[in-house]
Design brief:
With 240 residues, this protein is α/β, with parallel strands linked by helices. It contains seven helices and twelve strands. It has a single domain, classed as TIM Barrel (Alpha-Beta Barrel). 20% of the residues lie in helices and 23% in strands. The chain starts with a strand and ends with a strand.
């Protein structure tokens, strides 16, 4: 059983903030999950959306925003019910320092997006790996992404890191794969995915692809969409 808290437990504290991660670490969990983008001037920041408008008191696409501006924003500005103090958008290094030696960290490398067109932040894989190495957490981190093509790059740069491919209907047309995903499992593990309101255990099987091996899955069920992140269906790992 792996109990992982999505964006630090986004129902209990402003998502992807140090307040959320600190709160998560007071609970009996195995892992925290977070999302990483890159500022215009090359800093890895922990944030979910491609734009800051919906979560902060600022405006703009992260592609166009410098680290200093991002750090000036209040990431708790739109938390339901309010939050007693302002929360900065964390740098990745801050969260790694907080979690080191305590829990596993699932780092989702996010794609950039402009006008609905996805892309890739320059050197995002290199930046994430550099910071994981710097804090000595190669054995404590799992790199995940909907951008499957960034995962072999991660493995080539740092073979010691585990990687996981996120599969989604809107990115990969998962409906085409449902018969394969929902077949009786060749092997199975269970995991929980926490939002702060609840966790849900699942059992799932590996895709019959020779390059993919099952890791503890971020998953709901094939018939019921996730209440935490509707696009997440399955987490698998490339065992290069």
């Amino acid at each position: 059983m792996c109990n992982a808290w999505h964006r630090g437990g986004s129902r209990l504290a402003p998502e992807n903030t140090l307040a959320a991660f600190r709160n998560a670490l007071t609970l009996p969990i195995d892992a925290i999950e977070l999302d990483v983008h890159m500022s215009r001037d090359g800093h890895a920041v922990v944030f979910h959306d491609n734009t800051v408008d919906g979560r902060t008191n600022g405006h703009g696409n992260i592609l166009d925003l410098d680290f200093a501006y991002l750090r000036s924003l209040n990431a708790a500005a739109h938390f339901p019910g309010g939050w007693p103090e302002s929360q900065q958008i964390p740098a990745l290094r801050e969260v790694l320092d907080l979690a080191k030696g305590k829990v596993q960290v699932y780092i989702e490398i996010k794609a950039s997006k402009r006008d609905g067109v996805p892309g890739r932040y320059p050197h995002i894989a290199e930046s994430v790996i550099e910071q994981v190495r710097a804090v000595g957490m190669l054995d404590q981190v799992l790199i995940i992404s909907f951008d499957w093509f960034v995962l072999p790059l991660v493995k080539s740069l740092e073979p010691a890191l585990q990687t996981g491919a996120l599969v989604s209907n809107d990115v990969w047309g998962i409906a085409n794969f449902l018969p394969m995903i929902c077949q009786p499992p060749r092997m199975s593990m269970t995991s929980s995915w926490g939002s702060g309101r609840s966790t849900r255990s699942t059992k799932c099987g590996a895709l019959p692809l020779p390059a993919l091996t099952l890791l503890p899955a971020i998953d709901q069920t094939c018939s019921q969409p996730s209440q935490y992140s509707n696009s997440i269906i399955r987490l698998l790992a490339y065992p290069f």
